[in-house]
Amino acid sequence: VKKTLKIYWSRRDFRLLDNPALNWAVKESQKTKSSFLPLFILEDYMTCGNAQFQFGYPARFFISRALPIFAENFSEFLIIKGTVLKTFKKITEKFDVEIFVNEDIHPDFYKQIKKIKEANLKIHVSPDMMTVDKNTKTGQNNLYSVFTPFKKSVWLDFVNKAQKTLPKINLTKTKFIDHSEIITIKNIFKKQIIENKTEKIWAQCSKKRTILIGKNEIDLDDYVEKPDFTNCYFSENEALKLFKKYLKGGLMADYNKNRNSLEDDVIGKTSKMSTGLAWGLISARTLTNLMQKHFNDKFENPFSNRASLGALTFISELIWREFYKYLLYHNPKLLKTEFQQKFRHKIKWADNKIAISRFLKWIKGETGYPIVDASMKQIEKTAWMHNRSRMIVASILTKNFGVDWRWGQEFFRATLIDLDEASNNGGWQWGASVGADPKPIRIFNPELQARNYDKNQQYQKKWLGQKFSKEKYIKPIIEHVVARKRALIRYNFKLQNKR
Ligand SMILES: Cc1cc2nc3c(=O)[nH]c(=O)nc-3n(C[C@H](O)[C@H](O)[C@H](O)COP(=O)(O)OP(=O)(O)OC[C@H]3O[C@@H](n4cnc5c(N)ncnc54)[C@H](O)[C@@H]3O)c2cc1C
């Protein structure tokens, strides 16, 4: 008889606290006295030089740092280079295997699960992609397509689930796979076993940064520098520490005031939890649970005037994140197609050559709109960008420059450390006014945006340095008034006189 083995297949969930699949796998191995093995499958798409499937340069850098730290929690943790189905099939030849995995938003995930099930392997998927029910429907049994009613409908479920976070898993009573069994597995995979060290994982990763823009491949190294990851974090402990500090330091209480200001971003007043959430270093439930404890409030009423407005606004943002996952889960085509049918194949983007030239100026931060250029410098230097800046640069690229939002989405995919495929897609569709946003069209005026959100120009000065002085700054590649008129035509909107 084959020995039984419970496998925790880690994907984007590098944490011990509130980790449903890990919890289930460990419990099951304890209950059945089976051996337990956590593993990560390093697939080619994760290590190759383009950003296809969410693994841009920062993502590759991230896993090479995060995996060894996460692995330290376990007495055995394997990184196997290969494809998912083959890997599990090979282990199944020697062991009686049961696999436990957390649900993941990437559309490819479900294809993989289907293949695994078709091969008759035993796999359990924990519903960890969203906090709330991914099949939430309206009273008429339709999917929600607008954020506010969605939020109202899921709010209570969200805050209730946050109260039931799973405790940190205790691994001391767990019987890990023993030495001879590990040797058996290592013999199956031989060179496919990657040593659990940053330099070894990093050595597997391409350092290239190519992106596919329409039919053109662009090497980002020709245009922008590689980011400096000094201010990034890579572990569950760091994420937890950062968030606790955010609560204790009083920033959460004022989140509603802080979240939109670029001037405040110079001192860093948003939570920076996006990296932790995107990689599963921390769950949205845990964040909310910590807030509930800190404010001694369950936040059951989103309109309560006694609750902290900062906390309510923060929860609302976490529900935006849920909403984008919900939209993408129910319609994976959104990665390539406009949410609003009326815009599908209808917008006449700028001609390829002109679009490429504007796109390159945009990525280099040479558009002549200082607020846009500063934002593009922020992402170039840090692999992260403030939400207000993301909205501004998305609006300018699509509306002012007539560049297809899919190009912007791809660039962010390649350059963000907190890349979340659903939020990125939702953000780009929102920025291009083709997404789930009831407002017909938003054309941001970069000057007004700068005036409203960077009054004393501290953000622009920080990222543009010497180059920035209001009077002498390079001219915009297209004046906003002209760009705005063209955008209205492009989107087939009647010309209005408003600026
Ligand atoms: C064009 C565009 C692309 C984006 N791409 C991504 C992405 O790839 N990954 C990503 O995590 N976020 C993305 N966002 C959303 C948002 O910009 C970031 O979540 C936020 O800037 C992260 O900083 P923070 O953690 O300090 O946020 P905070 O302001 O502290 O917010 C807390 C958390 O709430 C969630 N959140 C906040 N704002 C939004 C929002 N507008 N949409 C969805 N969730 C939100 C995030 O999980 C965030 O970590 C994008 C927005 C736009 C407009």
List its traits.
499 residues, alpha/beta, globular, binds flavin-adenine dinucleotide
Summed up:
This protein has 499 residues and is of the alpha/beta class. The protein is built from 22 helices and seven strands.
Walk me through the structure.
α5 links the parallel β4 and β5. The chain is built from 22 helices and seven strands. The strands form two sheets. It has a five-stranded parallel beta sheet with strand order 3-2-1-4-5, sandwiched between helices. α3 runs antiparallel to α8 (198-204), α6 crosses α14 (309-330) and α14 (309-330) crosses α19 (421-431). With 499 residues, it is an alpha/beta fold. The chain is globular and about 75 Å long. 48% of the residues lie in helices and 8% in strands. Bound molecules: flavin-adenine dinucleotide.
Secondary structure blueprint with pairings:
Layout: E1 3-9, H1 20-31, E2 35-42, H2 44-47, H3 57-71, E3 78-81, H4 84-94, E4 95-102, H5 107-118, E5 122-126, H6 147-162, H7 179-189, H8 198-204, E6 210-213, E7 216-219, H9 236-248, H10 255-258, H11 262-267, H12 274-278, H13 284-295, H14 309-330, H15 352-364, H16 370-382, H17 387-400, H18 405-415, H19 421-431, H20 446-453, H21 458-464, H22 480-490
The chain binds flavin-adenine dinucleotide.
